[in-house]
Design a protein that fits this description.
The structure is a single chain. By secondary structure, the chain is mainly α. It is built from 11 helices and 2 strands. The protein has helices at 2-5, 21-30, 34-37, 42-52, 54-58, 70-74, 78-92, 163-170, 210-232, 243-248, 254-275; strands at residues 183-187, 234-238. Strands 1-2 form a two-stranded antiparallel sheet. The longest helix is centred in the last third of the chain and has 23 residues, at 210-232. The chain is extended, with a radius of gyration of 34 Å. It starts with a helix and ends with a helix. The model has no long low-confidence stretch (mean pLDDT 76).
Length: 276
């Protein structure tokens, strides 16, 4: 009700795409169980009327909850008061109310609203706008691994794939490149971090119990595990932009180093474009 009346401003999409709190409320109304939407009652009648009459819904009184809990016991139920006020407001505007088909509510609806039919055509951009169009087909989407077949004679130019390209696409997309020409693996840090806690707790009086000693042992083991992981961690660097290569850009042979780095980057770009 608050979404349809505009009291609750909530949108999922930008306004220029036609989204509004009223549209979201209509979607939620359609998702209700059928035994609720088909039931005859004041609340469902009000919601269906608001869904078909957006302008009228925006003019209905807002829901005002009690300011204090004590008011619930001393006054009439706020929800009941709201339903009565909305009923009176709709009665006053009954001459302008419409059915979902667009017919006036002052007369009987000549026929039920048409059933919703989802579109069976998907509008796509021109073929030139797509670099590739590869759609794997699988009958069992619940399995842990999907076996994708190679594509031959595809309707979209450039979408053919052989076994090697398919394996690369599903595992390591850059494997067809000669990566050893462009990247190098190096240690992430030169020194091994300390394997213990940065502070000593074993001498604390509260650390003498068996539970505390066991917790400290687990913490020390975790610190050692972290230190080993950090010491063995590697990072991948572009060969032309490694620290030594970057330092050469500011040395006496800076022009030669810059030319070499630019040439390597152009070669990498060319290889990536061929891969795409």
């Amino acid at each position: 009700y608050e979404l349809m009346s505009g009291s609750l401003q909530l949108q999922l999409l930008p306004s220029e795409l036609g989204d509004s709190p009223h549209s979201l409320a209509c979607v939620l109304l359609r998702m209700l169980p059928q035994h609720e939407t088909s039931s005859r009652g004041l609340l469902q009648s009000i919601l269906r009327t608001m869904a078909a009459n957006r302008a009228v819904a925006a003019a209905l009184p807002p829901y005002e909850p009690p300011a204090q809990k004590s008011e619930v016991l001393t006054k009439e139920d706020p929800s009941k008061q709201l339903l009565l006020a909305v009923h009176d407001a709709l009665q006053a505007k009954r001459a302008s109310l419409l059915w979902a088909t667009g017919e006036p509510m002052s007369g009987a609806m000549s026929m039920p609203p048409p059933a919703f039919r989802p579109p069976d055509v998907l509008r796509l951009q021109p073929t030139a706008a797509y670099r590739e169009l590869i759609v794997p087909r699988a009958t069992d989407v619940a399995c842990a691994k999907l076996r994708v077949a190679t594509v031959k004679g595809a309707a979209v130019e450039g979408a053919d794939m052989d076994a090697a390209e398919l394996t690369a696409l599903c595992s390591t997309p850059l494997s067809p490149l000669p990566l050893d020409r462009f990247v190098r693996s190096a240690a992430a840090r030169r020194d091994r971090p300390g394997g213990g806690l940065p502070f000593e707790l074993r001498k604390h009086p509260r650390a003498k119990s068996p539970v505390a000693l066991e917790m400290l042992s687990r913490l020390a083991a975790d610190c050692e595990l972290y230190a080993d992981a950090e010491a063995s961690r590697t990072m991948v660097q572009l060969d032309c932009l490694r620290p030594r290569s970057v330092q050469a850009l500011f040395g006496p042979s800076a022009r030669t180093a810059a030319t070499k780095a630019a040439s390597s980057l152009r070669a990498l770009r060319s290889a990536l474009e061929q891969l795409c």
